[in-house]
Each structure stands twice: as C-alpha cells, then as structure tokens.
Amino acid sequence: MSILIKILGTGCSNCKNLEKATFNAVNELKIIATIEKEEDIQKIMGYGIMRTPALVINEKVVLYGRVPGLSELKEIIQENI
User: Fold this and answer.
1) Which pTM does this prediction carry?
2) pLDDT at 2 (0 to 100)
3) Do 62 and 80 meet the contact criterion of CB atoms below 8 Å apart?
4) Which residues neighbour 73 within 8 Å (Cβ) at sequence distance 6 or greater?
C-alpha cells in the first residue's frame, strides 16, 4: 500500500516546520511514504480548510491550523495510514 502525505501551506514558517517535522516523523516511524508540499491556494481551498498548515494523509485532512509536537505527529500518522 502506498502512502501519500501532503503538507498544505503557502510557504509560511509554520508550513515549513510541519513539512520538516513530517519528514522526521516518517523517518523515525520507518514508513515509506511520498511526501508532497502543496502551495497552490486554490488546491488548498479544495480540501475545505481555511487555516494552514494542514496535513493530508491519503487525501484525508488529519490536521490543520497548527504544528504538533513530534510525538503527537507520529501518533496522527500512525492512526491514519
């Protein structure tokens, strides 16, 4: 099963922090996943979120509007793959 993780955000510092944390979490969990950054505001709005950053796993929005700590992020990823 392939895992697709998207970080939605326009490039703000929180978006960059979530992207970095997501790479770290996936690495620590030893998960093979494709991680994409989506910065197109129209595509971001298509997910129905109004606050970035957001985390999307296999096309399901699992987090938005904040950057969680690494342990919480790992839990979120594990629960949604």
Assistant:
1) 0.95
2) 87
3) yes
4) 21, 22, 25, 55
Give the list of residues 6+ apart from residue 15 with CB closer than 8 angstroms, or none: 7, 8, 9, 37, 52, 53
**Structure-token pair, residue 60:** 């399901």
Place of tokens 């960059």: 16
Q: What would the DSSP string read from start to end of 5-68?
A: EEEE-SS-HHHHHHHHHHHHHHHHHT---EEEEE--HHHHHTTT--SS-EEEETTEEEEESS--
* Number of Cβ within a 10 Å radius of residue 4: 13
Token digits for 19?
A: 């992207």
Backbone angles phi, psi at 51, to 5 degrees: -125, 130
